[in-house]
TrEMBL record:
GO terms for molecular function: DNA-binding transcription factor activity; sequence-specific DNA binding. Residues 1-66 form the HTH gntR-type domain. Keywords: DNA-binding, Transcription, Transcription regulation. The keyword DNA-binding applies. It comes from the Bacteria. SMART domains: FCD, HTH_GNTR. It comes from Roseicella aerolata. This is GntR family transcriptional regulator. It holds the Pfam family GntR.
Amino acid sequence: MVEQAAEAIVAGAARGIFLPDDRLVEAEIARDLGISRVPVREALRLLESQGIVVSTPYKGMRLMQVTNRGVAALMRVRLTLETLAVKEALAQPGGRDRFDRLRRAADAFAEATRAHDPALRVRAEEEFHAELCRASGNAPLLALWQSLARQLAVVWGLALHLHDCAPESEDHYTLIDALERGDEVEAVATLVAHVEMHAKLDFEALVAERRRQQPLG
């Protein structure tokens, strides 16, 4: 139940229910989820350990802040991990079929883009990139990526308001095609372009605009 509560809070951020630096009120979240406050309290502590929630004296628990500089730093770390994942995935034994699970994840993302729920699209993006890291066969690499996944989910949720998902879906298939051909250069280049797309987005302006659009009271 703690994990479910944590997922619900992250999904709320992806949907824009919670904006960066919003206060996360334990009692209100528990009421909305129809559960007791104990698992929500533990979920908030879990998310704090993952950098999604920040506890500040006299301000309570708040969703992580999102700044352009912070996103750039997060994407640099992510890109380093996923570039290594590409290289190690290509070094794994086997043929093209070792990327079948990654292709199914790409199909799931393409399907999710047709849904109206941004949380589903964010979750599908997370699953695709987790599968890329899993294909590396490097368990510590996957664990490191997963430690960043929920921070990425918050950023991805915001990014959905600044661009559509079609280019991302195309990038997924281009990346898989390169992996299946064993073309490391193209695979890494595709990944770099895919990740650096977020560097062109003004998250600070978006958060400010969305906060202005929030109803008063």
